[in-house]
């Protein structure tokens, strides 16, 4: 500790040693809590702060955990005993907005929704749209290659980043990528950094590819189905129709049941009949016509559709989906899984979830980004005492393992958008195999030969 | 040679030793011709053929040049003395087309246009659209992260590939990526392979992300302007309007001049007045309305627009642009450059091209994918004798150097979509710097520790 105080003194108030503050770094939103608090926190305000911290850490062989707002769902940003946490949360300035080039240059700590509020003043928009956008940072979105509700139409984070500045493990600063949409000079390090979960370096600046805000108001449809198989089929037919929805979310029977109880407890009456609910939103100049085209498709597959008469009513329908996690959290600690399967395998994956739920006798309320086959099955655990480690009973891990295996069998992946972090590390080899693990570790060693960045996570 | 004949005997007719056939491998479409023919050619029919060839090469330390149709513009696939060329051109089967999951699984040797002809029967389409699509392979498109005319709206190759099978330098086979649109398990090796120009492995299978063919007919506008600055400004205003064109191509005065002469020599009359020509195409259900919206924009910036009354007339307008390279080639050997700048810098880059053209007293006819700031300035050299090395006079290289420096100064890149290969290698360090070069070489060494894949190219 003395060595930290001495050698990092020039960081001033950016160096945080307060035990209460350090204790908070043991957790993120995954439910995982580290066994002990990290050594210290550097709340960087500048690129130089990050470089200073990493030069210090590499000099002394101290492990470093990069962190943004701490909203990760896989334990990728939790600090543990003996580690130095370097947060870029306070580096939250917008350095440039160019409407002509449809790009913005930002520091990594800016909150996704705050950035988009500023961009909206210019008629612009950064498409990555994780459900956490009100609390997660752009840097975190980049570290996990975040997806979200809108990526069925607008792509994931990797498709919305042009260039990066990254501080390497030894404190050196590199710039990757271009201010241009195209550019093929050498290996694509920008793409490699996106989704690398803090293993290769700390992103300290990003040039983001923007879009124009779509014209007009989005139009929203809520549709009730008898069961999830019918709803999944409808999603599949819609996805292959000529209409490309911006949002397509599917809630299963367990999810609806929990929502009904939750809304009732809030004293609200929400009409949620049936065994599955499909929420579809179209946007752009043709939103209304496109929504009209979807109504007969939904009806022909047994759905009862409700077309929101205006944007405000549409927001009320979307609120049903947004209330899902609060509803779960009111019952305990939530372990959110994140499998993805080819879209056509969505009904099969729901059937597998049903089977696993019965076999292990655990309710697994599930919501899916149906347009891209990404499902979030949830386990609700008894709420733990504050600050204690996540207490996941072994049979829940077994059920989760079964889920992952089922997704892989169906041609899918164990994480669509949350990342591997600590929580999914033990299954990574099952998906990518030993040869690829070895290559990935080799790449990691090129960037971080001492193995100091986020040790013990992902690989 | 005996060792090749002996140890690769089981390849049968996939092993090619015919001197005439080997001689052809000294060149691609870049104009570069290697000093001597390679040792041998493996025209792989199967993944096992590729593995066999690479196991053999790594056993004996023989350099390997991966090759597709040989249409590259940077010399990335030319075979030289002592090298083994491994071609995947004959691995051209479509293994699967899934309309439900909007994906296709293909071998790398299939020609882009042939694939799209087959996909069209299912109402599907693979978006990467290099001008070479009638002759270039999907594997080559992946190796260079090919762009093209349509990527202003539909993105580059990296955004249209889900998964790869790759044979590594030592003959091992790995699978990267997913059949799902989302997936974040570990580092993104799929993205790393895309655009890696044969340095990291040989792609032997690709899972491609498809789109539905847009509804309706595309609508085409051709517009004449007084000079290229006005036309570039119009392109910029269109690009930031609410309309997103599928194609936006710009030809400068020199290009038009050559086209006029060429059409005349063909005995054709084509109306091409003015000092610059802008070609814009809209597509999708709203194509006609969108095109109408562009007409007043063009007029307000001094352009004289001609709206094609039907798709056939639109094709005639597009033919003007497609005739550009034949027109150049009729005058000599063409050296095509490929700089890209932020879109707002397009007028400035055209001014730089004008300046360099005057300073070096060389005509530099230029065409631009104006929607994404990608310019192809061309040098026409006296036609060389067949099979002799590209004879680029030093002052042409100097003019090209000036072009690259200008593009970098404007925040751009020295290659937007053709790749580095041999031809741009000497400028790569200027763009990405020594630290990044070192990291890229480190990654290369992880995949290819003996340095056998495409040695002397790119890095």
From TrEMBL, chains A, B:
Domain of life: Bacteria
Occurrences of domain FAD-binding PCMH-type (ranges): 34-213
One GO molecular-function entry: FAD binding
Keyword tags: FAD, Flavoprotein, Oxidoreductase
InterPro entries associated with the record: FAD-bd_oxidored_4_C, FAD-bd_PCMH, FAD-bd_PCMH-like_sf, FAD-bd_PCMH_sub2, FAD-linked_Oxase-like_C, FAD-linked_OxidoTrans_Type4, Oxid_FAD_bind_N, Vanillyl_alc_oxidase_C-sub2
Cofactor(s) annotated in UniProt: FAD
Protein name in the entry: FAD-binding protein
